[in-house]
TrEMBL record:
<dbReference type="InterPro" id="IPR053036">
    <property type="entry name" value="CellCycle_DNARepair_Reg"/>
</dbReference>
<dbReference type="Pfam" id="PF16770">
    <property type="entry name" value="RTT107_BRCT_5"/>
</dbReference>
<protein>
    <recommendedName>
        <fullName>BRCT domain-containing protein</fullName>
    </recommendedName>
</protein>
<dbReference type="InterPro" id="IPR036420">
    <property type="entry name" value="BRCT_dom_sf"/>
</dbReference>
<dbReference type="InterPro" id="IPR001357">
    <property type="entry name" value="BRCT_dom"/>
</dbReference>
<feature type="compositionally biased region" description="Acidic residues">
    <location>
        <begin position="456"/>
        <end position="474"/>
    </location>
</feature>
<feature type="compositionally biased region" description="Polar residues">
    <location>
        <begin position="535"/>
        <end position="545"/>
    </location>
</feature>
<feature type="domain" description="BRCT">
    <location>
        <begin position="7"/>
        <end position="104"/>
    </location>
</feature>
<feature type="compositionally biased region" description="Low complexity">
    <location>
        <begin position="504"/>
        <end position="519"/>
    </location>
</feature>
<feature type="domain" description="BRCT">
    <location>
        <begin position="656"/>
        <end position="711"/>
    </location>
</feature>
<feature type="domain" description="BRCT">
    <location>
        <begin position="341"/>
        <end position="413"/>
    </location>
</feature>
<feature type="compositionally biased region" description="Basic and acidic residues">
    <location>
        <begin position="493"/>
        <end position="503"/>
    </location>
</feature>
<feature type="region of interest" description="Disordered">
    <location>
        <begin position="569"/>
        <end position="621"/>
    </location>
</feature>
<feature type="domain" description="BRCT">
    <location>
        <begin position="105"/>
        <end position="195"/>
    </location>
</feature>
<feature type="compositionally biased region" description="Basic and acidic residues">
    <location>
        <begin position="581"/>
        <end position="592"/>
    </location>
</feature>
<feature type="region of interest" description="Disordered">
    <location>
        <begin position="452"/>
        <end position="545"/>
    </location>
</feature>
<feature type="domain" description="BRCT">
    <location>
        <begin position="776"/>
        <end position="848"/>
    </location>
</feature>
Length: 856
């Protein structure tokens, strides 16, 4: 539900704004901006019960990144997505600013450019302004505080003089910068083009240019990382992995990882609140190596997030979702490369560090051959500048010279791009193009056409395990029609997702296995026959595995065999039972058993085995369908035996009672309570049940409909100022990041102890520290200038009012101010209310001095 208008006729009147929490837009900033827009007439939308933005209600989405799941939905509904700067710009103008210049999409390369032209000829001026606006920029007639660039030929124009005299943070650039950006389709650094002394006019083209680093390649230089990267803590606190919260992940069998590494990844996913599944239909994320196989096709057609091992590692390290289509080597690679690259031999020049590694791997993934040195048989040279020995040799040997945009866009579009496109052969004189590497997105439409054509709503109702060989039994002429792309929708759907892996064949009935099984023939796509989603290293592992198992069993029996041989050698004097007599009797018994009929009648006399009762199989428990955290439950108080018996009954019904620090499906309580267990579990965004649901299960021996037992507690909701439905929805949207990197200190002597508050704070992503008299300074002293004039960020101290704690307050305030932070010494109710509402709120009444002064 939306918040009510606080004032009619404001700047944002009639706006319904949704905010997207991310590392670049914290909950603290969202809280401040929400107050601002509501005071100016807007409605702030809460997430729906699934934690998603109600797209159909929103007029604007404020996000500083496009890395959120509903970005494509917002584009489809034509809902503008803007950075938080849009709100500030609107306030400065006292009217809503245009949305185009504030797009967070990195493909709008001029989205934060506000341009004015000085002494530029009219024709060039119109071309520059028009192209800039097409790429997300905005024109300003005059120089204002919002102007970011002045395009000029000299410093003599009044606009340039105004920038200098007023000390505006505005760059004065030559028009050559815009020209080079337009030709490349990428925004390069302005430094060589800055007036009054532009480098491009005084330096020689062959002069050295520093090889830049690229932030776009972090964790995306290889499709198959060598090892799991080291995971560093967020800020100074314990790392809280939230990217997999309530996500179901399927790890494909074609991943080139050991069983040990697979177990580590599964534990990380489960520890982060996710679930590892074995069905495409039930997964949210599918991780595989190649763009082929039944599972890949099904997952891609169904709109799952399909990525490779590098993408999975990137999620783990950065702890924030990003699209696998955003970086070329985060998506499964084509097993046979891109058509047309097979016979190419490509080498590199003027790229260094991660950029070079990335291009080497991209060339190989495309299907070409990479060579470290250049010879006459090379077909292409990819270079970041047009100055090097390789470039001179390439000109002499008539080898194609291109920049990295050619290989990137060929890979992204799944086809070799023509070398006649001018941007592939454009090289700005004082720029190393390595600075714009890794900014190309994969073309999803091309992927769909080549690798997973078809799909539809009726696909979603098919089960992985039910897709057997019966679908293959069609007339030959129809199969030919379908290969030519002339099949009906139903036929095409069936042939889109045929199974052809060894595991699926083994699982299917013998009569259902057919001789031929093909992936869908697609345009210019090589059709493979045989095992899919597998690696050569495990193709022949079956026989080795059987031998290993046999040897293991033999080793386990070795002690029994040795004891048997020893007993055979004993004589009668060694005891009443032993020696050859015992050994021979054992041999006779074994011989008799092996020669006896398979089916023995129970009433046969003299047959000891027939009279012996069969060994009972231990009953197996059903899989745990529901994992519930239970708090405030009174039934088991003081009766451990009853609790154990009831837990066993629940387990037989598929219900497992778990602790709050492990993944769960539900939270159950008799009413809303501000306990550690309740608040810690609420941060996971699970549904909250009335504890009477447990009673109903135990009393009836059946699992009732959970929807009939959703917790309803109007009295507590009124007292805490939030509905449980709204709190749960916010928690799902926050994904454990409500207090992301918010520093929270706590006195060691606080009432009720430190650990309960630590658990609640860290469950919501906070940086939690205990503040003691001997703690000293743990916030680095800074100045406002070092913080670039930014307003001080708040830092909190949870405390009660003992004399020992009061003595810490002045020292904490001094430490915070020295670090250019705003000290907030608050009662513990602040943290409990924030965790309950799942909203980062603050009011002066939480300050400890105000709280006890008012007698709250």
């Amino acid at each position: 539900m939306a918040e009510a208008h606080s004032r009619e006729g404001g700047i944002f009147d009639s706006c319904q704004i949704a905010f997207v929490l991310s590392k670049s837009l914290s909950a603290q900033t969202i809280a401040q901006l929400s107050d601002i827009v509501k005071k100016n007439g807007a409605q702030v939308l809460d997430p729906d019960r699934n934690g998603k933005i109600p797209i159909h209600e929103a007029t604007h989405i404020v996000s500083n990144t496009i890395d959120f799941n509903q970005y494509s939905d917002a584009q489809n509904f034509m809902i503008p997505v803007v950075r938080s700067d849009w709100i500030k710009a609107s306030l400065v103008r006292n009217r809503q600013a245009q949305v185009r210049p504030y797009s967070p999409d990195p493909r709008s390369i001029f989205s934060n450019v506000v341009l004015t032209c000085a002494d530029i000829p009219v024709g060039d001026k119109e071309a520059i302004i028009g192209a800039s606006m097409a790429l997300g920029g905005m024109e300003s007639k005059d120089v204002t505080r919002l102007t970011t660039h002045v395009c000029a030929l000299s410093m003599d124009h009044p606009k340039c003089q105004q920038v200098i005299s007023k000390g505006l943070k505005c760059k004065i650039v030559l028009p050559h910068w815009f020209d080079d950006c337009f030709k490349l389709g990428k925004r390069i650094d302005e430094t060589p083009y800055l007036l009054p002394d532009p480098e491009i006019l005084r330096a020689q083209p062959e002069d050295h240019v520093k090889i830049p680093s690229s932030q776009h390649l972090e964790g995306a230089t290889s499709a198959i990382p060598d090892s799991l990267p080291e995971v560093h803590p967020e800020g100074h606190g314990r790392r809280n992995l939230v990217v997999f919260l309530q996500k179901k992940v399927l790890l494909s069998s074609d991943l080139p990882i050991s069983a040990r590494l697979r177990k580590i990844l599964q534990d990380l996913i489960k520890g982060g609140g996710g679930e590892v599944v074995d069905s495409v239909e039930s997964c949210d994320m599918f991780i595989c190596q190649y763009r082929e196989g039944h599972q890949y096709v099904r997952a891609a057609q169904s709109g799952k997030d399909v990525g490779n091992l590098a993408w999975l590692y990137h999620l783990i390290v950065h702890n924030e979702w990003t699209s696998p289509l955003r970086r070329l080597l985060h998506y499964p690679i084509p097993k046979d490369g891109i058509p047309g690259f097979k016979d190419m031999k490509i080498t590199l020049s003027n790229y260094g560090g991660e950029a070079r590694i990335y291009l080497e791997n991209l060339i190989v993934a495309a299907g070409a051959t990479f060579t470290k040195t250049m010879k006459a048989d090379n077909t292409h040279l990819i270079t970041a500048r047009l100055n090097s020995e390789k470039c001179e040799a390439a000109k002499d040997w008539n080898i194609n010279i291109v920049n990295h945009l050619w290989i990137e866009e060929s890979y992204a579009k799944c086809a070799v791009q023509p070398l006649t496109v001018s941007k592939y052969t454009h090289f700005p004189s004082r720029t190393n193009l390595g600075e714009v590497i890794g900014q190309t997105f994969l073309d999803e439409s091309k992927l769909r056409d080549l690798y997973y054509p078809g799909g539809g709503d009726d696909d979603d109702n098919d089960d992985d395990d039910d897709d057997n060989g019966d679908d293959l039994d069609v007339p030959a002429e129809k199969e030919a029609d379908m290969a030519a792309g002339q099949a009906t929708k139903r036929g095409a759907r069936k042939f889109d997702v045929m199974k052809d892996s060894a595991q699926e064949k083994a699982a299917a009935p013998a009569g259902a296995q057919k001789k031929n099984a093909y992936a869908t023939p697609a345009k210019s796509r090589h059709v493979r026959v045989g095992k899919e989603n597998d690696t050569p290293s495990i193709l022949s592992s079956g026989s080795r595995s059987a031998k290993a198992q046999a040897l293991s069993k033999l080793h386990d029996l070795s002690e029994d065999i040795a004891l048997y041989e020893k007993e055979k050698k004993r004589t009668a004097k060694d005891g009443p039972w032993g020696g050859k007599r015992a050994a021979e009797q054992i041999d006779r018994e074994r011989s008799r058993k092996s020669s006896s009929p398979v089916h023995v009648r129970p009433d046969e006399e003299g047959d000891e085995d027939a009279r012996r009762p069969a060994k009972k199989m231990r009953p197996t428990l059903p899989p745990a369908e529901m994992r519930i955290v239970l708090t405030g439950y009174k039934r088991w108080v003081g009766d451990k035996d009853r609790e154990d018996a009831d837990r066993r009954k629940l387990r037989k019904l598929g219900i497992l009672i778990v602790t709050e620090n492990v993944p769960c499906d539900y939270l159950a309580a008799p009413q809303i309570v501000r306990t550690m267990k309740f608040l810690r579990t609420l941060a996971k965004g699970v549904d909250v049940l009335d504890a009477s649901f447990i009673d109903a299960c135990l009393d009836t021996g059946k699992v009732p409909d959970v929807q009939a037992y959703m917790l309803k507690d109007k009295e507590s909701e009124k007292r805490f100022g939030v509905t449980i439905k709204k709190a749960t929805a916010r928690a799902r949207a926050n994904r454990g990041r409500l207090l992301w990197n918010v520093p929270i200190y706590c006195t060691a002597e606080i009432k009720n102890g430190v650990e309960s508050y630590r658990a609640i704070a860290e469950a919501n992503g906070a940086i939690f520290k205990v503040y003691r008299a001997r703690s000293g300074t743990t916030i680095r002293p800074t100045t406002a200038e070092e913080e670039d004039g930014a307003a001080p960020e708040p830092v909190y101290l949870l405390t009660s009012t003992s004399e020992a704690e009061k003595q810490l307050w002045p020292r904490f305030e001094e430490m915070a101010r020295n670090g250019n932070m705003e000290p907030r010494i608050v009662v513990s109710d602040w943290l409990l209310d924030v965790a309950m509402k799942q909203e980062l709120i603050f009011d002066k009444r939480y300050l400890v001095k105000e709280y006890f002064k008012t007698g709250a």
